[in-house]
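Quick entry, no commentary yet.
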Amino acid sequence: MALIGIQLVVSLLAASIMQKMAPHFSFARWLLCNGSLFRFKHPSEGELCALAGKQMPKPNRRDRRQNGENKPLTVPKDIDLQLQTAPVNVIDALVLRFFLEYQWLVDFAVYASGVFLFTECYYAAVDASKEVNIGAIWCVLTVLFSLKTLHTLMSHYFRSEEGGERSVCLAFGFLSLLVAMLVLVVREDYLEFGLEPGFSSLFDNLEIFARQQGYADWSIPVTKLTVKLGLAAVCAYIGALLVFPGLRLAQTHLDAVEMNSDRPLVQILLHMSFLSPVFMVLLWVKPIARDFLANAPMGKTSITIVPSAVFDSMRLWIIVVLCLLRLALTRYHLQAYLNLAPKWVEQMKKEAGRIAAIDIQRKVTRIFCYLTVVTLQYLVPIMLILFSTLSLKALGDFSWGLGAVETPGVTPALVLPTPAPVLPGIVDEDEDGVEDMEEDIQATVAHLTATLAALRAVFTPLFFKGFFTFLTWWVAACQVISSLLGMYFHQYLMQN
């Protein structure tokens, strides 16, 4: 009966609370509408005419009949225009593009974090090694939903006929494919993902599982090379999803640093947040991270600064802390994006000529309408790294304790459990229906338990350790590449 336990009850309770509380309280709505973000309102035509020193033109029916439409109102570009600010409220946020997708994903991630924390406390208090880790399932679902949201955003770029967004996604996808193929051939002595032992464990357990099911001559029809090629294709897809979030991160980082020029502590935190994916990538470079701490050279000898098992736990803690740091600086990046409106106005004042009033209004309004898109581009990569790390901890048999004892990565023998038979008893004829129903329920639960136990025996912690380690590292690596390209583009190419 391990399938129906307190974890499942808490999981169902969290899903029910998320559904009931969404209309009343939402963390996603609070993040945008707590009064800390200020949007810029577009000027009306009357305000633009007053700044230009002329009266508001009255509609002329004779000109409309002759020309078919009114002549658009134009004003000089160098007018003294100052945009008015207003705090972002719920009414403003409800009309934003992709707001519903943003609200659902962020709220689901918050409840997934709560379920994961409960399961961690539950596993620490009770020996529940035979139960299904519901918190890990919520974390994996968050990773999948995050990828789906990024796919939705990328499909929006592909449908756009203006600009070169589609070409940028395809080019970065091919670049990611090339980088992934190079990374996958690197030996474990340099990049300690654990993919080789993980795939070996998976293939061996699948063959044992097939023989136990009666397929004696069945063997794995694919090779490790085929699996790595498929994994490289997945990496190319993830790289294409993360290109615009990285480019946007570079832009908001530069603007946020400029916006907080008089606050050196905030600037330091912003730089640490921007460089955090670089630290995550280096954590799995064995000569730089593990070998330096576990076998630090000291003359002709070497000393152990951090034991190997402690380093695994410390690495998880570092990634979680860096992700929380980036989440804490969300408001600075979003406000830096909203400040693009007055920045564009100041740039317009330096130009000569005239501009249509509708173009000014459209530009200022468009910046605010894409606020949730920018928020998703900032938050989703953080959620991918954070929940991939949490899945790695839960499914890879790691520990949060810095005094953990290292366990060897041995694949357990695959033995399928046999469900306990239901013993027939002497019952009355009136109780046959109830007894048959109880037997059906027991048989269903036993079958599900046996199926989950078989899956746990096939997909061992050794496999999950290699897979989620590589996924976490790859998302961080894509953010490093795309954000550095974005930094070069915005700081050098845009100025020339």
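second:
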Amino acid sequence: MRSDAWTHILHRVVDVTAFVEQAARTTQLEAEVAAQTLEVRDANERLRQAKLRLDHQIDVCSRQSELLRNVLLAVPLPVALLKGAGHRIELQNIAMRQLLADAEAIDADLASSARGLHKVLPLLDRVYHDGEVISVRRLAIVWPGDASGETGTRYYDLHVHPYLASEAGVEGVILAAVDVTAHVEGEASLKAALSSLEDERDLRDQFVLALSHDLRTPLSAASMGSHVISRKADDAGEVRRISGRVLANLERIDHMLRDLLDANRITAGGKLTLSVVSCDLREVVEQVVDDLSTVHGDRFIVRAPVSLPGRWDCATVRRALENLCVNAISYGAPGRPVTVTLADSGAETVIEVHNEGRPIPIDEQSAIFTAHFRRPTHENSARRGWGLGLTLVRGLVEAHGGTVEVESAEGQGTVFRIRLPRQ
């Protein structure tokens, strides 16, 4: 090759730094995009897995919530979830719905609509504002009147808990109520029964004391008389006199025991045996008045027909009349007359014994015929009888098919009225 064939050498320089650098950056970006793509893919997968877990948790919570709701609705005790300061009813079971219906809660805001819950609302406010748990036993709630206008008092054990649904604090309260009215009323009835038994025990104790005292006197007199007779056997007149006193005391004891046995038979619901014969009630009244006048003086007034015949157990009628007359003397105005009135009304005969003095209170008039009953005003009186006299009167009269009643008023005195059938 000839040396003169190339005369010049052309040299061109092109700066490709930017291209190279761009290519490098592109490669780097591609790597970064690829890496970010992988990260996004991993993040999406994590999000998908998280969503699956969240959906599962939501499903579990939903099932649990539905289960708890169903359990709440099935609980037989009143339970409710109340939201906000006004205690808006968020959830309530059937028992609570019925309870609030009694309170006439006509809308969902318990604080403004519920009647009868004025004692409950302060408890709800305390739990809502302070977050404390409150339990109250036997809270009396008076519900509004029904169609008849009658109100009803019920007793409840209340349990109030705060409802913490978020980090914000108390959002509401959970109220549960237990109706314990039956327990409260049962305890009250039991206490009343125990009190009645204690009163009856006290009355029986008083009765035993009175009985012992009353029997001791004639027994002692009869015993002393029998000893005197043994020392005066040679004095026939004195023996007869003392024997008469002994017999009289023994008859008095017999009379007491007969009254006691008959009164107990009447109290137990037993029947008395009558010996019905023809007799004149006018004569019976006069005998009773004559006998009592020897002890109490001329205080009796008799108002009766000349004769009032019929068929009765006159000994039994006499016992009833004696009890009423002795009662009139014992509890009537001192020194004032006792009036015994007989009247014939055709099919029945009416016997009335009236005394003056303080009246018998209305609330005691039906109880005075109860065994061992003593009027409170006479509990500390010296006239401590057995409390069986009027019980005996009632039984003796009812054995004849008759009735006995009392009327007593201020300024009019007291009248015991016996109604006996003529036959």
